[in-house]
Amino acid sequence: MLAPEEAVEALTSVKKAVSEKDKSAIAPLQEVNRSLLIYRPEPRARIKSNAAIASDVAPPKVVLLFGWMDAPARLVSKYAQPWIERFPQSTVIVKLSTAALFMASRKDKEAMTKRLADLIKAEAEAQDHGSSLRSEIGRLEKETIEKSPNSEKQATETTGPGDSTMTLIERDEAASITGSTTTLASPAEALPSGLFIHSFSDGGSTNFSLLLEHLSSSKTPVPAPRLHIIDSSPGISTAKSTSTAFAMAFQKKSAAVYWMYRTAVYLFMKAFLFVKWITGSPTRSTTLRWRLNEPSKWTWPGQVGVQTQMSNGFVPRLYLFSKADRLIAHEAVELHAKDCAKIRNLPEPEVVQMDPAEGGDASKRVGTMEHSPLQLRRWKNAPHCGMGRHDFEGYWATIDAFMRAHANDPAM
After folding, report:
1. Burial (CB count within 10 angstroms: exposed 0-12, middle 13-18, buried 19+), residue 328
2. Which of 52, 296, 343, 405 minimizes the number of CB atoms within 10 Å of its CB?
3. Distances in Å between the alpha carbon of 164 and those of 158, 160, 180?
């Protein structure tokens, strides 16, 4: 396992390497449709680290990212790239969030969510099919070698006892295609399994909550969730925060359009929230916050694989948020985490400050996270959904430490 100083140094080298790449190569994502992007791993991709960042984390089958409201693909892709760097053998799917989709009808939202669930299913099955195909090819090759009369002699002449030039990649391939049960050297050498979720803001969390709703009531066979990183969410909706979020896409284009649009949304939300209050109906944010913490929404009838190492079925969750966030109050995030702890009978999470001005130090930036699968990390001056840009090393070192502590099966 990397020491905190080594992890930060490794992250710095990766950041420099990424910044030197051509913009078109920052994240090799293909467009599925206007709101879905995907990275599909190369056939023989393995973790070969410039920095060995995730060398002790079992890779997920799929990493699922949910972008914040109206975030362009080029920005969300910058968060996809570090996941690809860590797990090049995993599929990475990016779901963009737009105001149009947010305001869509229930029927359209259900159709959109079903398409996403079907995509996850198809990509997971494609990986399984590839593994099965390699296993069958390996079995046939092994039989051919064993039937050869000179196979033993050739093997002895090629390599002496204990002398092998086989690389880590070749050894891992050999283990997978021959069906070997030999113990793997590290979690990173395990075949990809499960699902990692990384959601941003209430726009991304809303799309993820719709997926939770769908998977908890269907038998769609998707990988079991292993980890949830929740960035700048969930908040408590107000007319001001909602209008600001909806108008952010126009902020750098036209001041006049920005304020006209923001004012219109503000007035609409004032009326909308008033009607909700009068009728006693739950608001969107109330429903979102409930879904994320409701245990039944995390029970998927069709899930494939072991859900989590926690006996109560809780998927380890890491909250990343900021005091300076103009859209999501840090108190709302902290309250949601406390509610989660009560519901799941977990220790109430402590807020760990990530800025030196608030008492955080270098060791805490990576941090010890073994004691609880529910963690809070708070920055002081980072903007909304901007911790990764404001503090690249601290942000990803925190995620890496959390993965090492809670994303692996206990046997690994």
Report:
1. buried
2. 296
3. 9, 7, 18
CB 19 within 8 A of CB 62: no
Compute the distance between CA of residue 84 and CA of residue 25 in angstroms, rounded to an integer: 12
Say which residue the tokens 């999470």 belong to. Answer: 349
Which tokens is 387 given? 């911790």
Residues belonging to the chain: 412
Residues 345-377: pLDDT tens digits?
A: 999 999 998 876 655 554 556 566 777 899 999
- Please determine, for residue 135, whether its predicted confidence score (pLDDT) is greater than 90: no
Tokens of 278: 């009068």
DSSP-derived secondary structure for 202-236: HHHHHHHHHHHHHHHTS----BPEEEEEEES----
Q: How far apart are alpha carbons 388 and 370 in whole angstroms?
A: 23
260-287 pLDDT, tens digit each? 767 777 777 767 666 777 877 778 889 9
> Within 10 Å of residue 141's Cβ, how many Cβ atoms?
13
Locate 395 and state its tokens.
């942000």
Half-sphere exposure of 266 (CA within 13 A, CB side): 10
Q: Pick the closest to residue 403 from 363, 356, 370, 371 (CA basis).
A: 370
Q: Which of 194, 187, 191, 188 is nearest to 62 (CA)?
A: 194
Instruction: Using DSSP, state whether 337 is helix, strand or coil.
Output: helix
